[in-house]
Amino acid sequence: MSLKKFILGAALVFSCIAPALAEELLTFQITAKNGKLIPERIVVPAGRKIKLVLKNEGPGPEEFENLEMRVEKVLGPGATSFVVLHNLKPGTYRFVDEFHPETAQCLIVAK
Predict the structure, then answer these.
(1) Where do the domains of the chain lie, and which CATH numbers do they carry?
(2) What is the pLDDT of residues 55-96, one digit of tens each?
(3) Which of 34, 49, 51, 72 qualifies as a cystine partner to 65, CB 3.0-4.6 A?
(4) Contact (CB, 8 A) for 106 and 39
(5) 23 vs 68: CA distance, rounded Å
(6) Residue 26 in contact with residue 51, Cβ under 8 Å?
(7) Entry pTM
(8) Which residues form the signal peptide (predicted)?
């Protein structure tokens, strides 16, 4: 195969996949503050990849987790991070702050 044909073929493949790569993730934010996760419930589309931005506005560390999905993220005071959830099946997913499990919960509802 000539270099010219290879470059043209690669350009064609890239032009087909570039829109999918450029697709922006649906983004939702969860904030840990005063022993609570805010909001307590988020409705997201099922079957889509989503990004959860996690913020810790409290004075101490927070541990955002869902054991079923193997998601765990520890944030220091004032820190922001994110996790990506891939193609959630319809249902409810419970996330907790491990340091405040009784009061800091957020349900992700995939519909």
Answers:
(1) 25-110 (2.60.40.420)
(2) 999 999 999 999 988 999 999 999 999 999 998 999 999 999
(3) 72
(4) yes
(5) 27
(6) yes
(7) 0.75
(8) 1-22
